C-alpha cells in the first residue's frame, strides 16, 4: 500500500498540486447531538452562499471473508460546487450542488482460497459457484422456506474437515438463485472498476416558505440530500447520494413536524441523474417512500422525537428517541440518549447475508419480516472531551437499514460504527472517547477512539453457521485543521478500524484532506 502511495505521489506532480488546494471531510463520532431536522432544510441565509472544494480520499482495506481474501487500495479525488440561494421576495429560493470524481488509482484484488478446503467438485456447492469474481449468487427462495427440511440437506452437503468432498446425492438439491454484481465493500466511490470518472448533479431543488416566524411553513421540492432518523442519504467522501421528492415542515404547538415523499434517487457512484426505487430483491418497484416525524422539546430540556416511514406496501419503520442533557458539576454534564426502532416488511423483503454451508453470499427473503432494536447511551462531557458508553440489542431478525435496493442509509444507533452490530439477537456495547486538544493549547487537533463488542447466543442460526458468534472492533480517527496562514482551514485526517468476528477479519485506513477553495 505504502509503495503504491509513494509511487503515485512522486510520479504525479498534478496530484501534489491539487492536494495543496484540497478539501477533506473528517467525520467524527457524535452520539450526544439532538436531532436537527428543522434546521437541516429550513436554513435561511441572508445572502447567497457559494462554495467550491476539492476532495482527496485514499482508502486501503484488507478483508478476509471466510475462504477468500480481498485487498482494496482506492485513491479518488474530485471537485464539488455548492450554491445555496437566499429567499427571493422573502418567499422562494434554489439550492444546487454538483461535482465530479475521478480515480487516481482503483485496485481491487481477490486472493486465493483461505479456508483449507478446496470446495466441492460436484453437487450444489459447485453448481452455485459464481461465474467470475464480479458476481455472486443469491437465493430467490424465502427465509421461511430455507428454515425447513432443505436446511438439513444443505448442512449434510456442506464440505468439512472430515468430509472433504460433497456426497453425490447433493447434486439433487436445487435452489432457485440469481446473480448480482459484486460490491464487496460497498465503498468504491465510482461504482465499479470499469468506470474511471463520474460527473453528477447531486442536489437541485426549489425551496419555498410561508407564514410568520412564529408559524413557519417550509417546502423543498427536487433532488436533495436528507438526514432524517429512518431515511438518510450518503454524505460520502467525494460525491453524495440524494433523493428526488418533496419535504415539508412546520411548527404545531411548539413541536416541529415534517413530512416527505420521495420516488426516485441519485446513487453516489453514477452519473445518471435519477432512477426509480426498487425492492431489495430488485423484482418489484417501490413507487414512493413516505416519512412523517415530529420533535418536541419539553420545559425541563428533555427532547422527544417520533418518526415513521414506509416504502410503498413493502416495508414500514417506526422510530422513537428521548434525549436529555443535565449539568452534574461546573464544566461537566451528562447526556442520556435512548432509542427504539421497529420494522415490518412484506412481499419478500430481505437483505444480503452469508450462507455458511455453501460458503457464499446470498440474498434471503422473508415472507413476513420483523425486526426491532433498543439502544441506550450515556456520555460524560467536559469542555474538551466526551466519554461515552452505549448498549444495543437487536431482536427477531437482522435490522435492515435501508428502504430500497442500494439505499445507503445508516443504522440509527450509537452502535453504527465501522460495523453495525445489528445481527439477529445480538447484544453489543461500545465505549469511546472524543478529545479536543484546544484545552492544552493545541487548537485544531481532534482525536477519537472506541472499542465495541457484540455477541449472539450460540443458537443454530441457519444462514450464519459461524464458528463463533462474537465480533469486536477497535477504531477511531485523528484530524488536524490549520488555524492560520495561507492554508488556514485545511484539514488532514486519518480514520482507522480493525474488526474481527463471524469468521471475517478487516483492516481499514482512510486518509483524507479537506480545504475549501473559497477560503483560499
Automatic annotation (TrEMBL):
The keyword Transport applies. The keyword Signal applies. Keywords: Signal, Transport. Residues 1-28 form the signal peptide. Pfam families: OprD. PANTHER family: CHITOPORIN. Belongs to the outer membrane porin (Opr) (TC 1.B.25) family. This is OprD family outer membrane porin. It comes from Zooshikella harenae. The lineage of its organism: Bacteria, Pseudomonadati, Pseudomonadota, Gammaproteobacteria, Oceanospirillales.
Amino acid at each position: 500500500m505504502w509503495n503504491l502511495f509513494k509511487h503515485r505521489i512522486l510520479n504525479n506532480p498534478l496530484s501534489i498540486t491539487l492536494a495543496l488546494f484540497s478539501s477533506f471531510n473528517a467525520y467524527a463520532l457524535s452520539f450526544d447531538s439532538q436531532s436537527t431536522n428543522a434546521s437541516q432544510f429550513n436554513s435561511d441565509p441572508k445572502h447567497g452562499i457559494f462554495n467550491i472544494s476539492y476532495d482527496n480520499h485514499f482508502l486501503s482495506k484488507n478483508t478476509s471473508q471466510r475462504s477468500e481474501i480481498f485487498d482494496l487500495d482506492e485513491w479518488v479525488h474530485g471537485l464539488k460546487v455548492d450554491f445555496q440561494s437566499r429567499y427571493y421576495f422573502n418567499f422562494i429560493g434554489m439550492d444546487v450542488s454538483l461535482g465530479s470524481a475521478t480515480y487516481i488509482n482503483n485496485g481491487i484484488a481477490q486472493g486465493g482460497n483461505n479456508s483449507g478446503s478446496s470446495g466441492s467438485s460436484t453437487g450444489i456447492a459447485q453448481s452455485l459457484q459464481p461465474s467470475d469474481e464480479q458476481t455472486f449468487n443469491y437465493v430467490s427462495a424465502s427465509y421461511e422456506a430455507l428454515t425447513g427440511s432443505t436446511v438439513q440437506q444443505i448442512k449434510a452437503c456442506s464440505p468439512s474437515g472430515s468430509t472433504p468432498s460433497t456426497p453425490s446425492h447433493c447434486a439433487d438439491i436445487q435452489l432457485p438463485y440469481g446473480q448480482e454484481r459484486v460490491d464487496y465493500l460497498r465503498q468504491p466511490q465510482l461504482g465499479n472498476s470499469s468506470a474511471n470518472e463520474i460527473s453528477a448533479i447531486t442536489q437541485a431543488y426549489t425551496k419555498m416558505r410561508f407564514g410568520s416566524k412564529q408559524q413557519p411553513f417550509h417546502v423543498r421540492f427536487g433532488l436533495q440530500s436528507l438526514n432524517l432518523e429512518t431515511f438518510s442519504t450518503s454524505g460520502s467522501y467525494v460525491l453524495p447520494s440524494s433523493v428526488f421528492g418533496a419535504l415539508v415542515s412546520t411548527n404545531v404547538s411548539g413541536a416541529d413536524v415534517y413530512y416527505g415523499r420521495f420516488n426516485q434517487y441519485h446513487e453516489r457512484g453514477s452519473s445518471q441523474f435519477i432512477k426509480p426505487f426498487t425492492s431489495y430483491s430488485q423484482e418489484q418497484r417501490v413507487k414512493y417512500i413516505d416519512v412523517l416525524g415530529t420533535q418536541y422539546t419539553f420545559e425541563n430540556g428533555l427532547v422527544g422525537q417520533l418518526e415513521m416511514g414506509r416504502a410503498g406496501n413493502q416495508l414500514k419503520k417506526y422510530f422513537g428517541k428521548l434525549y436529555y442533557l443535565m449539568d452534574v458539576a461546573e464544566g461537566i454534564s451528562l447526556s442520556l440518549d435512548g432509542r427504539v426502532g421497529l420494522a415490518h416488511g412484506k412481499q419478500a423483503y430481505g437483505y444480503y447475508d452469508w450462507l455458511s454451508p455453501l460458503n457464499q453470499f446470498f440474498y434471503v427473503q422473508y415472507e413476513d419480516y420483523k425486526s426491532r432494536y433498543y439502544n441506550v447511551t450515556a456520555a460524560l462531557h467536559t469542555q474538551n472531551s466526551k466519554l461515552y458508553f452505549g448498549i444495543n440489542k437487536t431482536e427477531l431478525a437482522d435490522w435492515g437499514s435501508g428502504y430500497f435496493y442500494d439505499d445507503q442509509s445508516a443504522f440509527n444507533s450509537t452502535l453504527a460504527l465501522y460495523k453495525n452490530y445489528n445481527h439477529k439477537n445480538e447484544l453489543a456495547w461500545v465505549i469511546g472517547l472524543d478529545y479536543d486538544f484546544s484545552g492544552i493549547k493545541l487548537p485544531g487537533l481532534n482525536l477519537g477512539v472506541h472499542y465495541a463488542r457484540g455477541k449472539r447466543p450460540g443458537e443454530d442460526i441457519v444462514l450464519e453457521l459461524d464458528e463463533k458468534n462474537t465480533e469486536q472492533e477497535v477504531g477511531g480517527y485523528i484530524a488536524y485543521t490549520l488555524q492560520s496562514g495561507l492554508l488556514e482551514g485545511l484539514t488532514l485526517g486519518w480514520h482507522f478500524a480493525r474488526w474481527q468476528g463471524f469468521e471475517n477479519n478487516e483492516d481499514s485506513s482512510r486518509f483524507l484532506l479537506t480545504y475549501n477553495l473559497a477560503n483560499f
